[in-house]
Amino acid sequence: MAKVEFREERCKGCGLCVAVCPKKIISLKTTVLNSKGYHPAGVEEMDKCIGCTMCATICPDNVIEVWK
Amino acid sequence: MTKRVLMKGNEVIAEAAVRAGCRHYFGYPITPQTEIMHYMARRMPEVSGTILQAESEVAAINMVYGAAAAGARVMTTSSSPGISLKQEGFSYIAGAELPAVVVNIVRTGPGLGGILPAQGDYFQATKGGGHGDYRNIVLAPASIQELYELTVEAFNLADKYRNLVMILGDGTLGQMMEPVAFRDEESIETVAKDWAVSGRQGRKEHNEITSIYINPDIMEALNNKLQAKYREIEKNEVRVEVLQCEDAEIVITAFGIASRICRNVIRQARAEGIKVGMIRPITLWPFPSKTISAVASIESVSSFLTVELNAGQMVEDVRLAVNGSKPVEFYGRMGGNLPSQKEILEKIRTMAGK
Amino acid sequence: MEKVFSRTEGLLDKPMHYCPGCTHGIIHRLIAEAMCELDILEETIGVSPVGCTYNNYEYFACDMVQASHGRAPAVGTGIKRVHPERMVFTYQGDGDLAAIGTAEIVHAAARGEKISTFFVNNAIYGMTSGQMAPTTLIGQKTTTSPFGRDPQVQGYPINVSEMIATLEGAVYVERVSVSSFKDIKNAAKAIRKAFRVQQAGLGFSMVEILSTCPTNWGIDPVGAIEWLEENMKKKYPLGVFRGKDLEV
Predict the structure, then answer these.
(1) Domain B241-351 in CATH 3.40.50.920
(2) Which domains does chain A possess?
(3) With DSSP H G I counted as helix, E B as strand and the rest as coil, what are the percentages for chain B, rounded to 5?
(4) Is the model's pTM score more than 0.95?
(5) Nearest CB to B62: which of C64, C75, C106?
(6) Best of B65, B92, B102, B213 to mutate (most C CBs within 10 Å, chain C)
């Protein structure tokens, strides 16, 4: 059991977390815009998250927190 | 007062700084002020202070910026070409409102110039030099005793106003020896520096020292705050010596070493029946405009003569203060040459029609 | 479930102004985390440079001073000499440290000034919109080398860490990167070590951090990471250039 939480308002949609995720479960929500005008990153299939922290580690904007 | 000791001007500056609580000195060698650094190199270790020979004047003034931000009483000293290099730092110190003391023992210019005394840095010292709307308090001592007293005072003024204070001397003042009487105890006016960076150490908020404000409203507000401070300094800190002006026909205006020469000229002129007085600005900024303006309105005063070791710099401020009510003439020498009493007296005779 | 990755208290909780994918944000977090892990957040005074990170004093939770362009090591020297018991770091980019501030960094290192410098090398000027930096690679296009950096015209890039490592006062010099999970972990270790070297009073410490500038490189953030891996690491190899065997 693991989960990640995204603070969407702070996300700039750079996609570094998308590229680094070993489970390939992160994507940019192309139907959502935050108030800065970015498509924020998020996870659909949270049950596949392994809590490896790679996404949070590479995030430049302190968007992500991880539980395991 | 303790007994008087014979000391060189440059050494007196260093000793005065230590007595004023300065424990951090950053400098770079340049003639004719390097004895300050020599003295500091021996004196600072006695009081567990820091003396650091920086890699350049630019580095030295930025070390001053750091030490002042950290809350210390700090000084750097230099001479004209070195002071030019420090101007960027002066502007940042003004923007960040940091207290610091800078000494300029002026030599001749422009360029590398020469190592002999001059007053050619008046404009640079009083009108800026760095970028932006800012003011430095500028003190112009005329004797070694005054050099000592004003150096101590410079540290108090710097702390009081969170402002750069410059001692504007010249090669003569730095190199000459005179008796000086040190006080047994200095009046050090300490102020709380809760704005300084010292590590938070339990403080709830972090402290920031900066001079950059991208938002125009905040930038303008800072400028308005600075200007209000400068008006306050103009109101409180003008220092000037007025000598025999009550009945004078001709009033000399001169600062620093030039005023020393003029002091004797007054005596000689009066012996010849020409009534001469003198106004000696001790603060070059804030400038004693009101005093000059008041003397200009004395009926007996027919004209002014400004004497400087330059091509005529302070004379512009004198003319602004006199505001056309009386003629203002100028006599100056350059290149490290001092005007002789004879030359000045001759000029006065001509002005008096004798 | 247990929280295994939290936001650091070493950074104030406010959005940073950097472009999407700019790795300055990662480096800020690593420095902040190091201060928290070593319990020196309330002992530390940081110095901000001129460049994209001119206002990172707004982000770090420790006391901060903003310096003029290139002079951070001199400002840091002044602070450290007043508070020798505190920790002082400078955060500088390649224009700030390797162009206008070469004198200050060289002499702070030569003096063995007990401060830590975090030198961010992204091979370009970011703030002023993509001009050539001293670390710009041969052939790299910038707004002031639009046809690619030609050594016959613009000279050669500087390997700062190798140069600083020749100085006796520089006791710890390492080059790291933030272009992969593993590199970021190593970078975190190096930053902690730099602080510990300072804590132990051993001398000057510097960590050079290879970083990306997607906006001015004209590459998307993920592509920029790849460009760094393929090009920058060749010219700027990672490793410890001084203080390999230092135990702190």
Answers:
(1) yes
(2) 3-67 (3.30.70.20)
(3) 40, 20, 35
(4) yes
(5) C75
(6) B65
